[in-house]
Amino acid sequence: MSKLALLGGKPVSVTNVNKVSWPPISEKTGDKLKELYLSRKWSFNSPSEQEFEKAYAKYHGAKHGVFMVNGTVTLECGLLALGVGKGDEVIIPALTWIATATAVKDVGAKPVFVDIEPTTLCMDPVKFEKAITPKTKAVIPVHLYGSMADLDKIIKIAKKRKIGIIEDCAHMQGGVWKGRGAGSWGDVGSFSFQQSKTVSAGESGICLTNDDKLADRLFRAKHIGYPNGVAQGAAKSGPPQDLRCHNYRGTAFQALILADQVKGLKKLISTYNRSAAAIEKTVAGLKGVRVQTRGRMASPQGYYAFVLIFDSAPMKDIPLSNIIAALTAEGLGCGGTYGTVYKHLLFNMKKNEYRIDGGSCPVAEDIGTLRSVCITHQHLGNDMAAIKKICTIISKVVENHEELINYKPKSKKL
Ligand SMILES: Cc1ncc(COP(=O)(O)O)c(C=O)c1O
User: Fold this and answer.
1) How many angstroms separate the CA atoms of 82 and 163, rounded?
2) Mean pLDDT on 197-217
3) For the chain, what percent of residues have pLDDT higher than 70?
4) Number of domains present in the structure of the chain
């Protein structure tokens, strides 16, 4: 194939191949938002919130949905509902967004980082079991980017050791494990609907659960102690003494936007799976690159991002920044992963406030951080002509890898 665009060759696509704008908008939703505005029913467990909670829980096979202000406090409320607090440990994967750890700290507990699997990039169940101590009160498997954590193994271990399970599904809207939705397998499933997510209202989140008692605790934790189903000021019972409660309510506007998006979620996820399958097929024929393995029993697989892993010869010796620059120059805008939480610029816990089981997480630090490239989920929403271009770009960069070994980016003038 011709010379790389990064080095002056002709790009596969002059503009970014992605033509999908995000989040999606529609006139119909806009009209409904105006109607909602005029109704003045903007919060306080409004009909729009209840409608969305029901629809989202049903889609994912859960009995209850509790709508909240974002996907960090959903984790926090999940922990509060399970009674996690000071002196407890919560096991989380080393590769995730910092919020997974922050939520643990916010309830006064200690996050314990464990390594990931090199295939799924999700929590390694063996490492999880090894990290359990008498202080372990909960585990948060994260379904990361384009894979689901091994729920069968993690749930089996957690149940045997009487450890609570919160699935962090911020990346897994619409994902299905063995016929039932993400977030309905653990005690609590936590989702984020922030601006970039597959289902998005700019901000907000939801907790799913099948347990009536947990549903009550989740609702009270986010609604200053009120139980579900009573009007503001009409509560007949207060929250349990051990439950710290907040105002973590989302708004009816967000719920309305989300309820409309859920109607198209099945189609969206099916398109993403079609595109992912085509890229996987191309990558299978290339040397030095592989894809993040889908969740072992995930079908369809949800996607927040599609991950390429460059960890074998001849690609493993090429700096990741050069690979990203080459893909981007050809028209495939992409970036790295979050990297390990405990090395993230925004991670601000003191050494005694967290624990890295075994002292380090080599797979997350190497493959998860230095060898992996994320392509946004919006790319997967493009038509097959664009997906073919993505395949051509990946093939071109891999086939011309020698041009990249000694590439040094020009320093930018200030
Ligand atoms: C894995 C993961 N967990 C939790 C969160 C937190 O969600 P929010 O930004 O809605 O607070 C995010 C957000 O990016 C995330 O990616």
Assistant:
1) 10
2) 98
3) 99
4) 2
